[in-house]
Sequence to fold (205 residues):
Amino acid sequence: MTKICPQKIIRAASITTGCATPNTIQFLESSNTANLKRIICNVPEPILLRLLVCKEEKNTEYMEECPYPEHINTDATKKVCSDSDKKLAQIYIRHENYNNIARSCIIAFIEGKYIRETDKLLEIYQNTISWLDIAQEKPYFYVLSYGEPLFGLTTNDAKKNINIKIKEKFNEYQKGDEICNIVPVERKAEPLTINCGNKFSIRAS
Fold:
């Protein structure tokens, strides 16, 4: 994992005047990520953040220019912009020092009207797990749904279907393990907020 580009270590929230100040990462406004503007990392310990969306944000006219130059790992031998020709999730996070209690997390964005297409989401999940080689981390899978919302059983059925199929394909998960969460992106939301207690929680509002 140390020689994969992109990467950025997000330090724990700093303590100033008695308050914890979350670290903020600027995010390119893009339809690929619901036009969110920044990532707020409210974490008590350092985390590793990989903006895998960099591949999608490459300007085809200026391929040599990285959209997230501050995330470049100069020692990388495996780069998302050149090594993967498959659709990946947009974000990967885990504690800097990984442990089995605090599982890692991958985040994918999808327009709400496509949430029923669980096979595409499963493919994204499998591609990302394989490319990063993180099956042993039993990552959570957060699907951020934007655009026109879907209500009722549609979202619940999609989540249930994804959970079942992931457990069928990956032996690392136990029967009761929670894996997939589908999170709505609120209209006019600007930040993606990452909180971390015993596990990661994600919201966009």
Observations:
- The longest helix spans residues 153-169.
